[in-house]
Amino acid sequence: MDDQREPRRRRAGGRAGTAAKRGTGRGQPPWRLVENLDRPTEPLTPEGVQAIHEGALHILSEIGIDFLNDEALALFRQAGQSVEGQTVRLDADFVTEMVAKAPSAFTITPRNPDREIRVGGTSLAFGNVSSPPSYWDHATWRKIPGSRALCADLLKLSQHFNCIHFIGGYPVEPVDLHPSLRHLDAISDKLVLTDKVIHAYSLGPERVEDAMEMVRLAGGLSEAEFEATPHMFTNINSTSPLKHDWPMIDGCLRLARRNQAIVVTPFTLAGAMAPVTIAGAVTLSVAEALSAIALFQYVRPGVACAMGTFTSNVDMKSGAPAFGTPEYMRATQMAGQMARFYGLPLRSSGSCTANVPDGQAMWETSNALWAAVQSGTNLVYHAAGWLEGGLVASPEKFVMDCEVIQMIQRYMEPALVAAGPEEIALDAIAEVGSTGHYFGVSHTRARYETAFYQPIVSDWRNFEAWAADGMHWTASRAHLRVQEILAEVPAPLIEDSARGALEDFVERRRAEGGAPTDF
Amino acid sequence: MDDQREPRRRRAGGRAGTAAKRGTGRGQPPWRLVENLDRPTEPLTPEGVQAIHEGALHILSEIGIDFLNDEALALFRQAGQSVEGQTVRLDADFVTEMVAKAPSAFTITPRNPDREIRVGGTSLAFGNVSSPPSYWDHATWRKIPGSRALCADLLKLSQHFNCIHFIGGYPVEPVDLHPSLRHLDAISDKLVLTDKVIHAYSLGPERVEDAMEMVRLAGGLSEAEFEATPHMFTNINSTSPLKHDWPMIDGCLRLARRNQAIVVTPFTLAGAMAPVTIAGAVTLSVAEALSAIALFQYVRPGVACAMGTFTSNVDMKSGAPAFGTPEYMRATQMAGQMARFYGLPLRSSGSCTANVPDGQAMWETSNALWAAVQSGTNLVYHAAGWLEGGLVASPEKFVMDCEVIQMIQRYMEPALVAAGPEEIALDAIAEVGSTGHYFGVSHTRARYETAFYQPIVSDWRNFEAWAADGMHWTASRAHLRVQEILAEVPAPLIEDSARGALEDFVERRRAEGGAPTDF
């Protein structure tokens, strides 16, 4: 049986262990950015796109949106927009003109330039789960608080898997670190344990400024080099309905002024913080995103901005949010149509409602990940490791999700769908005719090693071989795989000078007390 | 823990049990045929479609295909085609002309006319798993042989779920029934325990003729009524590469002469029975399907025929077949492009390689089911209950798959993607403004009961509520749901006269010894 109480036996591994070792490191596909070959799925008619666009502009010009940030209010006034108290009403022309200044694609370059990502067009990049307070401890079947050590393990998985292109927020909240100092240690861990693009939270001026400085130091960049092009990004959520909070806007303004990348992701749960209808929830989401992006483009024309979508539904019986639902999929596809309408890159998510890495978790996550693909999403946030609506991180789920992501990458390889004479292979078909098989023919021998996707945690053995090896269900195999990866994943190279500068900075800021926690 | 050894505790149910009862019967969406709203995903360029078409015709005209059926060989000779021994070479014009006679859409009408299905166009229908010899016994965690009783349970699930539109082959092989009599009892069970469209195996003249007669009697139809329009269907596989066996072709010819529906599904595993390249495997599959469909159209112009696709890859390490892979998804989408090119309805499958209803099973099955949607498939065979590459049937997996299928149905509801003024809901957005929430507003109250998909086995409660209820993973919840459904599902109505005629027929044929088993 799938006995979760036998870690020793599980660690023993047997053939599962061998298969696992085959899968790690060398076994996985190389780092590459994915080009999305497929035409997006577009549930909205052109009239529907126009109606949502006009609805969003109507919301911003007639109903108005609150910015709980005095600097933003002053900037809107300066731009000749209507400001009453904290409520801003924006001219349709102003919004359209400002949003048009945003680039349709941009790059973000981490300390290892080979890990630069492109955001926009057909580019499709995946990131780890971000910000769960808790962690699924598969060995004890308990939900435990996040810690710096657990966060580090998830960062190592994020570095290990080539299909993970960027590092979002903390993959689990290191609650054992004091809030005033947490960002220093956690961002330092991100910059040392990974060499990929990282995110910084917009949670007050000190944290944002510290994060930008740490990214600059880790990359060994001058001020000018840092500001020449995006080297990091932040992601903010509006407080739906129709509200932007102070620290989120403050952080974005600071990044905008230093030419770093900004993702604006309203969290519009249909039936709760947004209309119960999907088109209504998407319209509200678009309005909230456009208002912030217009502000950032006014402050720094051309600064890298992406539109985020996080529209799902609630269970109308309990009010609990649900993810990976049909409503979620369609909302994501609709948001993709709107992002293309505005010429903005799109961010969506992998997500699920399930509490453990089981069947429900994987059909919900598959729905979310494929909806991201179908929507033309450029940045897939929370793509690996998410459980319980984002409240729990799981390394087992991380590995299982990476299997799905790797299959999406393989699915997008042009060679897979090529149909030239070499692929149609009439000579091989004539050679085999109606007898024998294709294992031995030269056409097969020349291609079989790279012909098909090689799994990392899927078990393709027959029932008897699988049963003889201990009847490990997927989550148990993933648990074993996690232990193997963490035992062997090497830390990425970092220049001693850069590392030293980073350590000195953290030391100094720690001595200064880090960031105030009174907001 | 997810202890599979505590059936009593699981049966007790608790809140899971309550939730389960909410989900059964009344809770599920009503019977309806799904219209696929989405533009198909088309990996092949128009040139690629043309190249595969020309490749398939080249195979049939130059390489040839074997028909191990004298009647077929005589018919091809009569049609002026080249026949050497059992190898047939078909003129491109003959194939094109014959295939053009096939209808692009047709109906199949079971004994309950309300359960008629349309095959073709944007219609999307789902059927149960077919033909596994074994059964996953979740209570004991053993793989056990199929039986008439287990088959009947799966037929009851197939009848219960409105998202299952047709009954394929036996959902598990009733190996406790003697092969000579098996078809009589098993088809009788299909016709009594369900009122949906059924499939009959092409396994020799007696079985096929018995099946047609039983469908006719169960429907209370005259010979003329039976032959006026399709009331059942068969599905055949070619013996790839390039071979059609005697009983398959014999059965199809018998159905064709009585105007019943035929699905031709080559089973082309890339790298084994087909080229290692997906385009090559699809080309071989198309050639094999066209050759049989051309024959049936020659015999009865306009008879209902669908093209099937079952192209996947093997694990090149072990040679074992793999399903729900990226290669499988692209092959299915390519087959959809070819079916539309020929104006033929398409059949594909739900499938997976996993041995148990776990995470791998659900990402593989999700890949297969969404590929069916993306390919424009009309008939999704094996859509619910399949494990271990089709060697194992599982009622738990059946329920889990039905959740995914119901979500696909919900996903395809036009109302979900409507974007008129009522859906964009500017009045509600103005009413709520930047304060409060949408739970209470009239726009929500008027819609919330039907606004969102309601799950049957998904658990959307938070971790704590889920844990307090016994930490049941998806398969355990599905196991509980299966027991509840089987306890309450009513047998469909059947006319006493029809039932009596069916029983008399089975009695007579049993007395005659059923079908010979010496082929």
From TrEMBL, chains A, B:
Gene3D superfamilies xrefs: Trimethylamine methyltransferase-like (3.20.20.480)
A Pfam cross-reference name: MTTB
Transferase as UniProt keyword: yes
TM region positions: none
GO-annotated biological processes: methanogenesis; methylation
Top class in the EC scheme: transferase
Keyword ATP-binding: no
Region of interest called Disordered, as start-end residue ranges on this chain: 1-33
Gene Ontology molecular function, alphabetical: methyltransferase activity
Keyword terms: Methyltransferase, Transferase
Entry's EC annotation: 2.1.1.-
Family note: Belongs to the trimethylamine methyltransferase family.
Name of the protein in its database record: Methyltransferase
